[in-house]
């Protein structure tokens, strides 16, 4: 299934640098396993906010291609 609208793969939020910095800070001092678990929890929280399985699957497919 394809989403009704194409996925936005271009920068779509105002302060990408602040987001990246926040993400790096969240991983500071974590082991690789802890970092992977943090990423998994973050993905699940974001997917829950998205709330659309079709779009989520399209995002996963797009992420695997980049």
Q: How is the topology of this model organized?
A:
Layout: H1 16-27, H2 32-50, H3 53-65
Please explain how this structure is put together.
It is a single chain. The chain is mainly α and 66 residues long. The chain has helices at 16-27, 32-50, 53-65. It contains three helices and no strands.
Mean pLDDT: 86
Quote the beta fraction.
under 5%
SSE string:
HHH
How many strands, what sense, and barrel or not for the largest sheet? none
Number of distinct helices: 3
Number of strands: 0
Distance from N terminus to C terminus (CA atoms, Å) equals 20 Å
Helical content class? 55-70%
Q: Which structural class do you get from the secondary structure elements?
A: mainly alpha
Whole-angstrom Rg: 14 Å
Model regions low in confidence, pLDDT < 50 over at least 5 residues? none
- Shape, per Cα inertia axes: globular
Could you give a short description of this structure?
The chain has 66 residues and is an all-alpha fold.
For this entry, give a set of tags:
66 residues; globular; mainly alpha
